[in-house]
Amino acid sequence: MESTTLPKLATIHYHWVRTKPPDPTMTSLPLDPARIRAFFPAFAEPSLQGQAFFENAGGSYTAQPVLDRLERYYRATKVQPYGVYAASAEAGGAMDLAFTRMAQALNVSPDWIQFGPSSSANTYVLGNAFAGWLKPGDAIVVTDQDHEANGGAWRRLELQGVEVREWKVDPETGRLALADLERLLDSKIRLVSAPHCSNIAGEINPVADIVARAHAVGAVTAIDGVSYTSHGLPDLAALGADIYFFSTYKVYGPHQGVLAIRPELAAELPNQGHFFNDKKPRYRLTPAGPDHAQIAAAAGVVDYLEAVAALAPADLPGADPFRRAHAAMRAQEIALATPLLDYLRRRNDIRLIGPDDPEKRAPTIAIAHRDPGAEVAKRLSRHGIMAGGGHFYAWRLLEAVGIDPNHGVLRLSFVHYTTPEEIQQLIAALDAEL
């Protein structure tokens, strides 16, 4: 059930009768928070003691295996990689390992993997590449649920004569309905782009179903996984997407973007790099030189996920450590989100964007209030709550659900390393400041 839809925020009058906060007891957690948090130096940082981190959708804390690999690269191999001397060869080997390990975690071959400076940069390059691949009169589908880094890159193709069709969210719930997608699809569609999970609405979209419908009309798919992957890396073979991208700094790693693209499709796209690199797959969609150290460090993300799998209960499903880590992280987050969503559901002076069922959403929880989101976040900081307010580059989505992007929302985002005590700290802060 969705929260009651509020009218325009500027004119609303609120009434909130305070009730006793929900019982802090929650479902038994599959992961021991203390053992998980031991992998993150941030939790031992004196300046962060007492601060509960609820802005993980903007970037998570960095895991120790990532820092270890980054430090090793900068200390021992900060040279040009792939050369003839030992340090250079080691540097190239560390980078190659990251390609191999990331592919392993995503269940694809290493030739799927590209690293770029960010997901925004990766999609910008992709948009330019598709401008040379599509023809005037071709059509694509984009959504108004996207972060602008994804939607904006594809919408620019309209300047090249490409027809852009918008898959619109429900204005009350922020949900994308598959039936609405079906009505947009025909033989002219060459690309369908959608988020795996909205960074505002939070609902986990049925990617495999979206991909199947796109493929049925001969279209390729580009899935934005930036807001999903901090909750577990997906099995790309099972999803079937032709393009899937995300940011490693939101997955416990360095500030970099991963672009997974079907090799056959990547080979068809026009070269975006130097002409003499046209035959080098890793260079064709990376026009600028990549950050070698951060690529090497990205292997630490995969190391960390294997460590999570080792701490997970043996009876959790999953054919490999990465699927088991995914299952454990999601189960942890669902248990943590339940009391927070129960609390928010009881309030009639806010609007929750997206579903209030923790099993249907990621724990990226946006609420609209009469006060601007950034103002509410500032008040929460007095209680040791680190959260954010604004439009979070989801301008079109906020407009679609009737919220002024300049007013924005309060966004509360957490991951599996959050503790039950921090959830209660957040609820107490909300009770005091909303």
From TrEMBL:
An MF annotation (GO) of this entry: transaminase activity
Domain Aminotransferase class V, chain residue ranges per copy: 53-426
Keyword Cell wall biogenesis/degradation: no
Domain of life of the organism encoding this protein: Bacteria
Keywords noted in UniProt: Aminotransferase, Pyridoxal phosphate, Transferase
The protein, known as: Aminotransferase class V-fold PLP-dependent enzyme
UniProt organism field: Devosia albogilva
